[in-house]
Write a structure and sequence with these properties.
The protein is α+β, with helices and mostly antiparallel strands. It is built from 23 helices and 13 strands. It binds ligand L3CPSR6R and flavin-adenine dinucleotide.
C-alpha cells in the first residue's frame, strides 16, 4: 500500500513545471480557480453530497436520490447565499444529473433568449426562485433533428385571446425533454403557430403542465417518463419524459414574442430580429457542451493516467526506490502512450477552444443587444461544429480510457462506465453530430460561393481569403523539428481544410440541383466540416500559446501538448492530408517521428498535468483515479460493498443452487 502511494509521489516529483500555475491556466483565471477550488472542497466534505454507488440503485432509488440532492443543493445555495457563479460550480461538483440541469441550462436561457422584456419580468423571477420548475420541450416522438417538421400545434383563438396547444398525432408527442416525466411544472413547448388558418411554422410557448398545488397534470395534459436509458446510473437519475396535449388553452401572452408576435386581432407580426433567434437556447447550450466535453474527457484521462502509472505488467525487472524488483509501469509502454497522451492533449485543446467559444458567444450576445446580427451565422456554425467535434472525440476518448485501464476499467468503481454512459448522449442531444456538421458544411459552401462575389470572409473562415495560395502551396517541412513550427502546422491544416471544401464546392456544381448535390456529397461535406473544425481547435490552441503564459515551465508543457494534439490529428487523418497534397508521404513520416519524440518529452509530466485539473477524489468518483494511487486496497474494499456480498450464501441458493447440486450428486450416485 505504501509503495503505491510513494509511487505517485515519485511521479509528481518528476514534473518539470509548476502545477499550481497550470491549475490557473486550466481554470481560466486565478479567480475561476479560487472559486471552483473552494466549492469543490465544500462539496467533497459535505456528507449530504456523498456519492453512493449509483450502479446498484434501482431506478426509483436513483431518481429519488437525485431529487434529494437537487433539493439539498438549493438549500445550501440559499443558506450560504452563493452567487450565481458559485451556485453553478456547486451544481457541477455535486455531479448528479437531475432536472435542475434542464431548468437552469435550457428553460431559463430559452426565456431569456426568446421572451420579450415584459415576459421576462414575469417569468424569470418565478424560475430563478424555483417557484416553478421548467423543461425544454422541443423534440417529438417522430421528429428530433428536423425542427421544422414538428407537428404539435398552437392555434390562436381570437374569441378567447388564447392559444390552443394540441398533439394531433402519436408522433407529435413530445419525447425526451429532461425533467419532464415526473418533475417539471412548466415547459417551453415548441409548436407550429396557426392563426387565421395560416401555419407560420415553429415557435416557442410557455405552458404550465402540472398543478402547483398537488403536482397533478393539468386538464388535457398527459405526461410520464419515457423509460430506462443506457447505463446503470448515468442519465437514469433524470426523468426524460413524454407529453401530449389535448386542446390545452394558454393565454396569448404566453407565446414567446421576442422574434414575432400575434396581436389581439390574430395578426402575425415579425420583429426586426432574425427568426433563427428562436434557436438561441440551442446555440447557448452547444457552447456549454464544448466545455462539458473537455471536462468529461479530462476526468477519464485523469483516471486512466493515474492508473497507468500505478499498474505494472511484464517487462524487464526494475528496481523500485527500496531496491525491490518490480514490473514495468504500463504508462511506459509506447502503445499506451500513443493511445493516452493524445487524449490528454485533446482535453487541454478542448478546454482552450471552449474558453474561446465562450468569448465568441458573449460577444454575440452583446452584438445582438445592439441589433447587430452579423456574427450569428458564424456563431451558429462554430457552436454546432465544435459541439459535434468535441463530443464525438470525448465520447470515443472516454471509451478508450476505460480500455486503457484493462479489466478494472470495466468495473463500476472505476467511474468510467458511468462517465461514458452519461456523456455519450451528448453526441445526439442538442443536435445529432452529423446533422450539425452538415450545418457547418452549408456555412462553408456559402462562404466559398461568396468569395467569388468579393465578400471578405471573417472570423474562423478568414483563412479562406487566401484560397489561391492555400490551394497550391507546398508544405516546407524537411526535418522532424520543422513540425514544431506553429505556422507550418497551421498552413498544413488550412490547406487541407480549404482543399476539401473547394473540392466539395466544385463537385456540387455537377448536380442538377444544389439539394441533390448536398444529399449525394454529404459524406464528403461532413469530412470538410470536420477539417474546418479541427483547424479552429488547432488555431485556438496556437493562439493560446501566443498569450502571456506565466509559471515555471507551464508554457513548454502546453507547447508539447499542442504539438501532440496537432501531429496526432495529422497521423489519424493522413488520408486527407496526403490526398489533398497538403503534405507529402515523407513529411507524414517526419510528423510521426516528431510525435514519438513529443511523447517521450511529455512522459515525466503527465501525472502533474492531470493533477492540474484539480479534481477531488469525490468528483472523480473512481477507485482507479485516486489522487494517492492507492488502488488495490480500495478496489478490494469496494468489492466487499457490493450488495451480493451482504450475505455469505446468496439469496437463491436454496431455490436454485442447492437442488441442482443435490440432483446432480444423486444422479452421479445412481
Ligand atoms: C454523472 C456524470 C455526468 C458527466 C457528464 C456531463 C454532462 C452534463 C450535461 C448534462 C446536461 C444535459 C442536457 C441535455 C439537454 C438536451 C436538450 C436537447 O436536446 S433540446 C433539443 C435540441 N434539438 C436540436 O438540437 C435539433 C437540431 N436541429 C436543428 O437545430 C435544426 O433543425 C437544423 C439547424 C438542423 C435545421 O434547421 P432548419 O431551420 O430546418 O434549417 P436550415 O438548414 O434551412 O437553416 C435555416 C437557416 O438558419 C440557420 N440556423 C439554423 N440553426 C441556427 C441556429 N441555432 N442559430 C442561428 N442560425 C441557425 C442555418 O444556418 C440557415 O442559415 P442560412 O443562412 O439560410 O444558410
Ligand atoms: C439524453 C438525451 C436528452 C435529451 N434531452 C432533450 C430535451 O431536454 N429536450 C428536447 O427537446 N430534446 C431532448 N433530447 C432529444 C435530442 O435533442 C434529439 O434526440 C436530437 O435532436 C436528435 O434527434 P433524433 O433523436 O430524432 O435523431 P434523428 O434525427 O432521428 O437521427 C437518427 C439518425 O439519422 C441521421 N440523420 C437525421 N437527419 C439527417 C440528415 N438530414 N442528414 C443525414 N443524416 C441524418 C442522424 O445522423 C442519426 O444517425 C434529448 C436526447 C437525449 C438522448
Amino acid at each position: 500500500m505504501e509503495r503505491i502511494m510513494d509511487h505517485l509521489a515519485h511521479e509528481r516529483s518528476k514534473a518539470q513545471f509548476s502545477v499550481e500555475e497550470m491549475k490557473i491556466i486550466w481554470a481560466g483565471s486565478l479567480h475561476a480557480f479560487q472559486v471552483s477550488d473552494r466549492i469543490a472542497r465544500l462539496v467533497a466534505s459535505d456528507p449530504g453530497f456523498r456519492k453512493d454507488n449509483r450502479a446498484v440503485l434501482s431506478r426509483k432509488e436513483l431518481f429519488k436520490s437525485a431529487l434529494r440532492k437537487a433539493a439539498y443543493v438549493w438549500k445550501r445555495i440559499n443558506e450560504l447565499a452563493l452567487s450565481e457563479e458559485e451556485a453553478s460550480w456547486l451544481r457541477f461538483y455535486v455531479d448528479e444529473l437531475a432536472y435542475a440541469y434542464i431548468h437552469w441550462g435550457m428553460f431559463v436561457p430559452a426565456i431569456k433568449g426568446s421572451a420579450t422584456e415584459e415576459q421576462q419580468q414575469k417569468w424569470l423571477p418565478l424560475a430563478n426562485n424555483m417557484q416553478i420548475i421548467g423543461t425544454y420541450a422541443q423534440t417529438e416522438l417522430g421528429h428530433g433533428s428536423n425542427v421544422r417538421g414538428l407537428e404539435t400545434t398552437a392555434t390562436f383563438d381570437q374569441e378567447t385571446d388564447e392559444f390552443i396547444i394540441h398533439s394531433p398525432t402519436l408522433t407529435s408527442s413530445k419525447w425526451w425533454p429532461g425533467g419532464l416525466g415526473k418533475v417539471a411544472t412548466h415547459a417551453v413547448v415548441y409548436a407550429r403557430l396557426i392563426t387565421d388558418g395560416q401555419d407560420y411554422g415553429v415557435h416557442g410557448f410557455l405552458v404550465q403542465i402540472r398543478s402547483l398545488d398537488d403536482h397533478f397534470p393539468l386538464p388535457g395534459v398527459t405526461v410520464g417518463d419515457i423509460g430506462m436509458k443506457f447505463g446503470s446510473g448515468a442519465f437514469n437519475s433524470i426523468d426524460n419524459g413524454f407529453l401530449r396535449f389535448n386542446h390545452v388553452r394558454i393565454p396569448r401572452n404566453q407565446m414567446l414574442m421576442k422574434v414575432s408576435r400575434v396581436t389581439r386581432q390574430g395578426k402575425y407580426v415579425e420583429s426586426n430580429v432574425p427568426k433563427q433567434l428562436l434557436y438561441g437556447a440551442m446555440v447557448y447550450v452547444r457552447q456549454i457542451i464544448v466545455a462539458d466535453a473537455s471536462i468529461a474527457l479530462s476526468r477519464a484521462v485523469c483516471i486512466a493516467t493515474r492508473y497507468s502509472a500505478v499498474r505494472r505488467q511484464f517487462g524487464p525487472p526494475h528496481e523500485d526506490e527500496n531496491g525491490k524488483g518490480v514490473e514495468t509501469q504500463v504508462i511506459d509502454y509506447k502503445t499506451q502512450q500513443s493511445r493516452l497522451f493524445p487524449l490528454l492533449a485533446s482535453a487541454y485543446a478542448f478546454r482552450f477552444v471552449g474558453e474561446w467559444l465562450k468569448w465568441l458567444y458573449t460577444d454575440l450576445i452583446q452584438k445582438l443587444e445592439a441589433n447587430d446580427f452579423s456574427t450569428l451565422p458564424e456563431a451558429h456554425a462554430c457552436t454546432a461544429g465544435l459541439k459535434s467535434l468535441t463530443t464525438s472525440a470525448a465520447a470515443d476518448g472516454i471509451k478508450e480510457c476505460w480500455k486503457l485501464c484493462g479489466g478494472h476499467g470495466y468495473l463500476s468503481s472505476s467511474g468510467l462506465p458511468e462517465l461514458y454512459a452519461a456523456f455519450v448522449p451528448a453526441c445526439t442531444y442538442e443536435g445529432d453530430n452529423i446533422v450539425l456538421l452538415l450545418q457547418v458544411s452549408r456555412f462553408l459552401m456559402k462562404t466559398i460561393s461568396q468569395l467569388q462575389t468579393g465578400k471578405k470572409p471573417i472570423g474562423t473562415t478568414a483563412y479562406m481569403a487566401h484560397v489561391e495560395h492555400l490551394i497550391q502551396c507546398r508544405c516546407t517541412v524537411q526535418k522532424a523539428e520543422d513540425w514544431l513550427n506553429p505556422s507550418v502546422i497551421l498552413e498544413a491544416f488550412e490547406a487541407r481544410a480549404i482543399r476539401l471544401s473547394v473540392a466539395c464546392a466544385e463537385n456540387l456544381t455537377k448536380f442538377a440541383t444544389p439539394l441533390q448535390g448536398f444529399s449525394e456529397l454529404s459524406p464528403d461535406l461532413v469530412e470538410a466540416a470536420v477539417a474546418h473544425c479541427q483547424l479552429i481547435v488547432v488555431s485556438k490552441f496556437i493562439e493560446k500559446l501566443q498569450q502571456n503564459i506565466e509559471g515555471n515551465g507551464v508554457k513548454q508543457q502546453l507547447e508539447t501538448l499542442c504539438n501532440i494534439y496537432c501531429l496526432n490529428l495529422i497521423h489519424k487523418h493522413l488520408g486527407d492530408f496526403l490526398s489533398t497534397g497538403s503534405i507529402s508521404p515523407k513529411q507524414a513520416s517526419l510528423a510521426s517521428d516528431q510525435l514519438r519524440s513529443r511523447y517521450s518529452k511529455l512522459r515525466s509530466n503527465v501525472i502533474a498535468l492531470v493533477d492540474a485539473f484539480n479534481y477531488t477524489d469525490h468528483f472523480l468518483g473512481s477507485v482507479l483515479g485516486r489522487y494517492d494511487g492507492n488502488v488495490y486496497p480500495k478496489l478490494y474494499e469496494e468489492a466487499w460493498k457490493d450488495p451480493l456480498n451482504d450475505s455469505i450464501v446468496p439469496d437463491g441458493y436454496h431455490e436454485y443452487i442447492q437442488p441442482l447440486l443435490k440432483q446432480q450428486l444423486q444422479n452421479a450416485r445412481l
